[in-house]
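Query protein
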Amino acid sequence: MAFIGRARLLAKCRQAVDAGLDVWLTGEHGVGKTALAKRIASDAIYLVQIAPAKELLSTLLLECWRRGWHDAEGEEAEVEKALGRLDQKAAANAIVAALKRADGAGQPVLILDDFGSASPTIIRICRRLAEVSTVIAVGVQATTAQKPFLFHFTHIEVPRLTRGESEELTRRLLDEYGVPQKERAALLRHVVEAAQGLPAIAHELVKRAAKRGDLSLRGVRQEELHGHKTVDMTPGIIVASCCLLALRYAVRGMNDADLTVLAGLGTVAFLVLRLYASRLSAKRR
């Protein structure tokens, strides 16, 4: 995967981790926080979707076993089942002991992705883990409950790519997939404009179009439309309106005046809901 425009940030992160400092990476969705975090330390333990607590603990303890830090016996499937049966306190104690044992080869590094969704229980566990390891927390922003835990972390904001960096990233992606020279200029310009400095979008557009076998301007545009989620509430509105009219007729009957009022109100409700649905669709990709 192409990695552009992050050399200084990467050096800053590595400097902090080498000094034993915890790091808090923030930035917009798709700006490349996770890709940056994974390059900080090659032997880091990456933990994605760090909730619920039991899943986090069992996943981390299993990784400690794979690295020889935890002395559970048996095959991997047997060990995984045994670890899943441990309660939260026992699993946390076992992880702390395993991470301490690994400290002889250098302090372990844990990457906690999507930290913005961490619950108070997860935060309490992370407090213990931070005592015996270096933590790299990745998220868009911190909640009020998370800020005390992150107070001593080295905060690094990951910005969008500049125009020049976006062009270099897209150029490398097109080189990787062997795009013909005659189609490259228009395709490069379109991907750069669509990505708006977010490398994840550029990667996704090019990758999906290449997977469909149509890495051209037309193919990328189709992928944009395909990935644009829409919410069509028309069928639901029509069915609900028919049910209300039928219920009204069954209860009280209906004359011309009633029909006119209900039709007017129904039209207004329909237009308002359609406007809401179109705005919701525009925000989702």
In short: The first strand starts at residue 23 and ends at 26.
